[in-house]
Amino acid sequence: MAETPKIVLPDIPGLRNIDTYIAHGGYRDGLQKAYSMAPTAVTDEVKKSGLRGRGGAAFPTGLKWSFMPKGKEKKKYFLINGDESEPGSFKDRQIFEFNPHQMIEGILIGCYAMQIDHAYIYIRGEYAHWVRMVKRAVEEAYAKGFIGERMKETFKPSGEGVEFFTELTVHKGAGAYIVGEETAMLDSLEGKRGYPRFKPPFPANFGLWGQPTTVNNIETVANVPAIMKMGGEAFSKIGDAKHPGTILFGVSGHVNRPGIYELPSGTLLLDIINKHAGGVPNGKKIKMVIPGGSSMPPMRGDQLEGVMMDAEHLKAAGSAIGTAGIMVMDEDTDIIKVLTRIAKFYWHESCGQCTPCREGTGWLLKLLRRFEASQAMEGDIDLLYDVAKNIEGRTICALGEAAAWPVYFTIERFREDFEKRVKPGLKVESPNRVHGLRKGGLEPVQVHVPVVERT
Ligand SMILES: Cc1cc2nc3c(=O)[nH]c(=O)nc-3n(C[C@H](O)[C@H](O)[C@H](O)COP(=O)(O)O)c2cc1C
Ligand code: SF4
Q1: CATH top-level class of 18-236
Q2: Which-ligand-closest: CA of 214?
Q3: Assigned CATH for 246-330
Q4: What is the pLDDT of residues 98-124, one digit of tens each?
Q5: Could you count the other beta carbons within 10 Å of the beta carbon of residue 442?
Q6: Cα angle vertex 79, ends 131, 103, to 5°?
Q7: Could you tell me the residue ranges of all domains in the chain?
Q8: Ligand 2 centroid vs 175 CA: distance in angstroms?
């Protein structure tokens, strides 16, 4: 197997320890270089690198940084998204555990480039163990004078940012998937219930407490010190040209060696599954793969040949990179059961603001439960498809798509699995009777059991 660069999780024992990190050029090679440049030149370097966000949408990072209003007149914030709640995603916690200082260094570089003097790391509530680890790392960096007012003496930047310093706060969430959505995270951090906001205005103009805010994923910022160290151009040559760098691929499900594999973008999906993750146990065939976390379009096992794992190639192959959480399911998998479980998750996590999402996710779940119980009626496949299609594009945030995509793409790609669960002749007994009573009697209608068999 060819040697691959390890940018975010290098194989250096004890790297989480600040002294080990410093001994390997940490808080020096990337940060000091950034401080020798003008802040806008740092953003230009990140642009040149081609780095794209690793939080799901693969948005170009340098471009996002350039949206931040220049200067220091306004209070501005940098918010680092460590909510990591998408089923199938478990990469950010590897950074928290094995290389937290590189993430911190990346945040400091970002703060300097955008002239921000306060950054927050938001970590999901269930990650209590990793919250403690990150807090410890931040405290160590403060103690060394790498964060806070003492930065002015420690680094003495020679670019326009002389006198620059920034504070860094670690915030533990309360445990909700929806606060991973950037605007819901803003509300949550402000102490409110985490509801996604309408966009525009975008966070770059109206973010935390109404001030300009840039939101980036943990893995995204962890790439930045390496970009500064090797230069944007060198970084842009790693992996796929349109989505360069390495990606932390999280492989789970039916593989012999589940785990996180840092590989160049554009690596073949089947190579990740078979060579790196050890293939499918007992030599079974792959039935389905979800390549980017549970909200991304599932792919058939016979669709995977030649598929490359980067944003553009995956899009062309009919899916999306998302968080690069690859979920593998073998030929014996009951994919209706899998889909029902996924639908339950999005139904449970819907914040309830938009009707298509609040109601639609519940309808998806009810319909899927009929299929799961082999009690689906003729027409239910089209109904399910229709419900999913009517959620898409009609909601405030992308949780609507997250719920709809797995469902309608699975119908498109595995229709035969749904057809097998349809019971011919089955019809619905409408519960919609006056006052919920059956005619001629006082027996209440069982609304939650909408299917009865007619002979
Ligand atoms: C429902 C929902 C959940 C999300 N959850 C996360 C998450 O856990 N972590 C994350 O980084 N981005 C998440 N995102 C994407 C963020 O809104 C945002 O685009 C991202 O943090 C930007 O960082 P990046 O540009 O570095 O990728 C989520 C988006 C949606 C719609
Ligand atoms: S799409 Fe769903 S989760 Fe997003 S704002 Fe609307 S109701 Fe809330």
Answers
A1: alpha beta
A2: 1
A3: 3.10.20.600
A4: 999 999 999 999 999 999 999 999 999
A5: 7
A6: 55
A7: 18-236, 246-330, 335-419
A8: 16
